[in-house]
Structure formats: C-alpha cells, structure tokens
Amino acid sequence: MNLSKKILTSMEEAPNKTLKFENEIYTFGQIAENIKKTASFLKNSGVEFQDRVAIQLPKSMEFIYFHYANLLIGAITLPLNPDYSEHETEYYLTDSKSSLFVTTKDNAKRLDKVINKLGIKLFLIDNSMSEVFKSKPIESSLDTKADDVAIIAYTSGTTGKSKGAMITHSNLINNMEALKKLWRLNEQDKLLHTLPIFHVHGLVVALQGALNAKCDIVMHEKFEAKRVWQTIEKDRITVFMGVPTLYQRLADAADEFYTKPDISSMRLFISGSAPLPDILFKRFYELSGHRILERYGMSEAGMIASNPYDDNKRIPKSVGYALEGCSIRVVKNGKDADLFDVGEVYIKGNNVFKGYWQMPDKTQESFENGWFKTGDLGYIDETGRLFLAGRAKELIITGGLNVYPKEVEYVLEEHSSIKEAAVFGVKDGDLGERVEAAVVLFNKDSITQDEIINFCRDRLSHYKCPKRIHIVDEIPKNTMGKVQKNVLSKEYSA
Question: What is the total count of domains within the chain?
C-alpha cells in the first residue's frame, strides 16, 4: 500500500489532464514522469526506507515532485512552512533527525548557521533540478506496508514542544477515498487551489484529493480574493477549498465588481481548518447562492467529519457527520455524554495517525482504549451531527493556521524585561481569531509594546506573533493559580 503509487496510477490513467500553475501548464503525464525521475534521484542520492526528508519550499512544482517521489521510495516527508524561524526550523530538523533538507538558495542562506551546526545534507532546487530530470525514471515503487509512515506533520502542543504526528500511507489513502466518495470528486471537476501546500489542508485534502480523482487543477501561488472570482469565471472552476479567512475576503471582494462574476460552473465551496462563523455562512450564501460545506479535521486524523453533500442539509455551526471509516463519540466525566451535552471529542478509525514521533508517553496520554482524545469540545445532536463548542487545549486558529499559546508564551518570557505572559485569542472578522498577549514587566517602563512584538517576530513565524501586547500589573488567575484566559479574551475583545 503506497500513496504515491496510487496517485501515479491515477495520473497515468488520465495523462492529458492538466495542472496549471500560474502561467505554466503541466499534464498529469509530465508530472508523473517528473515524480519518477525525482524518486530515482533521491534513491541514488542515498535516501533510504523511512528516512526523513524535510521540504521547506515556497508553493512550487518542485515541492510536489519531491513529496510524491519521497513517498514512492518509502521515505517520510517533513513538510515545513517557509516562514518558520531559524529556531523553529532547527527544532524540526533536529527532532526528526532528517537526512536531507530540500530548500532554496535564499532560504539556505537565511538558515546558514542552522545548516552548518547540524551538518545536514542539502539540496537546493535553484541549482540542481536539471540534474534531477536527467535521472532515469524509477521503474517501481517500494511496496510499503499500510502502517508505514508517509508524513510527519508537526503540531504545536500546550507544553510548548511541537509534536510530530506520524501519518501513514493507509491513513492518507483511506481518508482520500472517503472524501472522494462523499464530495463526489470526479474527472469533470476543476479545482482552484490557493492554499499553502506545507499544510495538511492544501497538501493532503486539496492537492492529493484532486490528483487521485483525476480533476484538472488551477493553482495560484498565493490567494487573492478578486483573482479567485475572476478565475472561477474564466477557467470554469467547479471546486474551491479554503479557510474562513479566505471566505471573509471573498465576500468583501465581491462588492468591488461592477458586474457580478459568472460562477455558474461552481458546484462546491468547502471550508475547514477553523470554525466558520454563522454570519459568514449566511452572507456567502446571499451573495453566491452557495452554502459552504464545512468539514472538521486535524493533522492527527486528516478529515474527521463533514457536512453532507446535499446543499440543503448543510447547516451553520455544525461540522456534520463522521466520515466513512471514522467513529466519533463525545466524552464527559469518563462516560459518553448525553445528546446536546458538551464534552471532549474522541475519535477512532482508519484515518487516525500512528502516534507522535519519538514521544511514546505523549502518544499513550492521547489515547484511551483505542480512542484518540482530540482536545476539542463539542456535542452531538439526535441525528448524530457534530457541533464544536471550543478547544480544550487553548488552541488559537488564526487565518486557518494553528497557534498554541504556550509556545508564544515561552518566547515572550525569554525577554529579560518580561516577568510573566499570557497568550490568548480574540475574535477577528478577517482572521477568525488573532493572537494577543498580556504581559507583566519587571519594570513598567522598560520596554514598549512594539519592541515586544519585534522581539517575537525575530523568533516566531509571523502568524504566531501577537498582534497586540497589553502591559498589565497582574494577570487574572483563579484560586488554584490557573490563568483565566477567558477573562482576558473577553476583556480585550471590546
């Protein structure tokens, strides 16, 4: 069971299907050939079964080639956000014990100290892709087993230490087939892809799903709201996947058109990675005539639940029903919660990951009698439909990207002027939530809010940096000494 082998089979069965990336058009036949050449190159370069290959690239065809080639020979992809700081990148490369780092010349220069310190083998796509394409296409894939790891997706934890979720070939294939069936993805579809591909949403759900279903693909390097509407009309797009922030911007951009774009080709707008506000669901329906299909997933399990394909059965505030192959229960006080009673969401199924990389204790803590404890709070109605009510682990989702407060707090508390920090999310009309922080200083006038934000920018990805800093005399706590972040969120939401 090999994911890349399955994807290659689909592409080779539809060799004239196309992926248009900005101004270049690639046929599926060409892409498949380049993946097999890249696989041969990796193998000849010494990459072995279950070696970790870190890919830190901008959205590009090279990312696609290296990812699928890597899986084809049984190695493991470590997709890394190009915006990760030196500190973050060093941690991921070190923790994963990656044997090869695929990146660009500029990024390698930025990370020069890290690369030299680790002595990691480097491949720069700017210099050597011609060398890759000289390779003879690999003749056969490695016959990986169902539970062999395909991807390690790092997800921050409440302890501040990122955990690598080990996602297997079986996880990816089963989830992919369930989504294909539910969302009715087929050869007549054309997907507009504007998501980043270092993230599970863009790489696994969107790109992988479209290639498997033999959909034509139009891929933009970055999301631009007005351009999305224009592309839907021009290229007769049928499927679009986004996060609530993108839909908010699409709704805002729709008002800029003198003549409403023709989106009659569209059959499916899908949203995930963060809760979709009720008001946005209704606003988008009013301007487009489409009810956004909201689904629920996470790095550790791919997609877990989805609203029905039937447009009339999609409702706001709900993430729908468990996907085929996945079971959901809501647990409160160690027992199944009553209907409509909020508890922690537990899941089990062929989509659930193998465990956390080199963290057996964390893995054991995360499961109970075979059920994975998601850390999300929710309830189930009388029809079995799941509604999410919050996040037990204080996760902040900003623009569809996950931020765990503890990780940011650790950085803030590295500053010599900061005595204590509490990071929390505040509702934001554009991002869904924005990151903010309250800090207590040793000396009240020793540093400004802007200086603290700049300190964070040097150490964290931009989306993790607090958008506002509140310098306070005291951080609110309960009688047990636990920080009351709900009080901070409520106070600063105003």
Answer: 3
8 and 107 belong to one structural domain: yes
Task: Give start and end residues of each alpha helix (H) in 240-298.
Answer: 244-254, 278-288
The answer to whether position 156 is within a domain reads no
Proportion of the chain in helix, strand, coil states, percent, rounded to 5:
35, 30, 35
Contact 25, 92 (CB under 8 A): no
- Does residue 378 share a domain with residue 400? no
Indicate if 420 and 340 belong to the same structural domain: no
The pTM of the full predicted model, rounded to 2 decimals, is: 0.85
Do 131 and 230 fall within a single domain?
A: no
Q: Indicate which CATH number applies to the domain containing 443.
A: 3.30.300.30
Report the amino acid identity of residue 303: M
* 381 and 451, same domain (yes or no): no
Domain that holds residue 371: 190-391
Burial class (CB in 10 A: 0-12, 13-18, 19+), 161: middle
Per-residue pLDDT of 205-227, as tens digits, reads: 999 999 999 999 999 999 999 99
46 within 8 A of 55, measured Cβ to Cβ: no
Inter-residue contact 69 to 42 (CB < 8 Å): yes
Looking only at Cα atoms, what is the longest distance across the chain? 68
Residues 29, 48, single domain; the answer is: yes
Q: What is the pLDDT of residues 276-306, one digit of tens each?
A: 888 889 999 999 999 999 999 999 999 999 9
Instruction: Please calculate the CA angle 139-144-146 and round it to the nearest 5 degrees.
Output: 145
Q: Are 184 and 156 in contact (CB under 8 A)?
A: no
Contacts of 97 (CB under 8 A, 6+ apart): 52
Q: Is residue 47 part of a domain?
A: yes
**CA distance linking residue 304 with residue 321, whole number of Å:** 8
Distance in angstroms (rounded) separating the CA atoms of residues 240 and 228:
9
Residue 363's identity, in one-letter code, is T
The radius of gyration of the chain from alpha carbons, rounded to an integer in Å, stands at 23
